[in-house]
Request: fold
Amino acid sequence: MSTTDTAPANGAPKAAEGAPRPPKARPQTSIVPGATIAGRALVAVVAIMTFLASLTIGAALAVRSTASHWRSDVTREVTIQIRAGDRKLTDAQVQQAAEIARTTPGVTDAHILSTEETGRLLEPWLGAGLDLGDLPVPRVVVVKIAPGAAVDFAKLRRTLSDRIPTASLDDHRLWSRRLGAMAEGVVLTGVVLLVLVGLATILSVVFATRAAVATNRAVVEVLHFVGARDGFIAAQFQRHFLKIGAQGGVIGGCAAALLFGAIVGLPRFGLVGDPEDPTFLGWLNPGIWGFVGIAGAVLVVALATALTSRITVYRTLRTIQ
Amino acid sequence: MEHLVRFENVGLRYGMGSEVLKDVTFSIAPKSFQFLTGPSGAGKTTLMRLLFLSLRPTRGLITLFGRDVSSLDPDEVAVLRRRIGIVFQDFRLLDHLTTYENVALPLRVLGKEEASYRGEVTELLHWVGLGDRMDVLPPVLSGGEKQRAAIARALIGRPEFLLADEPTGNVDPTLARRLLRLFIELNRTGTSVLLATHDIALMDQYDARRLVIADGRLYVYD
Reply:
C-alpha cells in the first residue's frame, strides 16, 4: 500500500507531493444507472402511448376541421325543389322561385339546374342516356348564400309556399346538424381516449419508477448515507425518466406525424390515390394545429413521465431510511 | 463540553420481537476515539444503524450534535448525516461509478460543481493510495482497495464523527495496522472516531475507550 499514514495538521488530508491532477473535466456518470431492459421497455410503452395519443389528437382535429369545412360549404347553399307537373307551368314556377330567391337579402345567386345538369346529378342512380322528359323529375334551383349572411329562411319558405304551392325549400339544416353532432362526438371520444391513454401512461410510469427505485435501492441507501436530500435523489430519477419520456414521446410523436404527413402528402405528389377523391384519406389532414397538438402531446408525455416519477420516488423514499 | 452523541436508556426491538438493545446509555465526546466491540449478533450493527440514523429507537432518547433525533424530518436527517462519515463493512460502493466518482459522491450530492472538488478528491485518493485507480470501477478493485475507497468517501466531507464498521475485516494484518494508524491520525486532527471491530489484536494496538456490547447491553470501559 502506498498510503501515507500521516494526516495533515489542519485536518484535511493532503496529497502526496507532486500528485498529478486530472487533466480535464470529467464527464459525470449518471447517479441512477442508465440503460436497463426495464428502461428500454418503458421507452417502447411511452412511444406507443404517445403514438396513440397523437393519432387521437390528429384524427379528432381532422374530423372537426373537415366537418366544419363541409358544414360551411353546405350552409352556403340551399335548394328549392319544384315538383314536376305541367311543363310550361313548372318552367314559369321555376323562374318565379329563382326570382323570389334572388330578391331575398343575403342571396348572391340563384341558378336553375338545366335538364342536363339534373340528369348528371341523377346519373349515379338512373344511369346515362335516359330521357328525363319521360319521368316526373322535380326541378331544382340552387341558391348561393353570401358568406356569413343570415338569410331568413322561414320567410323565404313562407313566401315560396304562398306563391308556388309545389315548391319546397331544403336548407340542409338537419344534415348540417347531424354532421356537427358527429364531429362533436368524435372530438368527445378523442378526449376520452386521451384521458385513458394518459392514465395508462401514468400508471406505466408509476410502476416503472417503483421498479427502478426498488432495483436501485442500494444506490438510494448510499445516497441517503452520504447526506443526499430526498429532493436530490428524486431529481436524479426524474432526470432519468425525463430522458425516457422524451425518447418515447419523440419516437411516438414522430411516427404519428409521419403517418399524417404521408396521408396528406402522398396524394399531392401523385404517389398514392387521387387528391380530389373525397373517399380517399385526404380528409384526415389534421392541419397545422394537429401537428402542433402532436408536438404538445410529446411535451406533455415527457413532462408527465418526469413528474410522475418524481412523485413516486418521493413516496417510495419515505419507506427507505 | 457538549456531547457529539448521547444515548439515554435507549431500547430497540424489531416488530414484536424481544429487545435487541436494552437500556443503552453512553455518550461520545468531540475529538474522542473509541472501539465498539462484542460478539456477533450482540447488537453492534443495530447500534451503528441508530448512530447513523438508519433506525429510530423504540424507547429512550438519542441526541446527535445536540439534536433529539426523534424530532428530525428527512431533510434534517440528511443535513446531520453530512457531519458523519460512514465506512460500511461491505463498502457500499456504487458499481457503476468510478472510484473517483464514488469518493466524490458526498460532495456531488451537495450540488457542488465537479471542477470545485476535483483537486480535493484527487489529493485524498492519492493519500489513501488509490491515485492510479481513480478511473476504475469498484468490481475491478481488490478488497483492500475497496476498503480504502470507502474510507476516502467517508472522509471527503471532513466529518466531525467517523463511524467505521469492521474497516479492517477484509484486509491483511499489515494493512489493518496502517488503516488503524490512519484513523488515529484522523482523530488527532479533531474527528471523533467510533471503530466497530471484532479484532482484539487490533484493539490491543491502541489504548482507547472501549464500548462492549453483549446481549443487547452496553458496557463502557474508559
User: Anything to note?
Assistant: Chain B has a mean pLDDT of 90. The two ends of chain B are 17 Å apart (CA to CA).
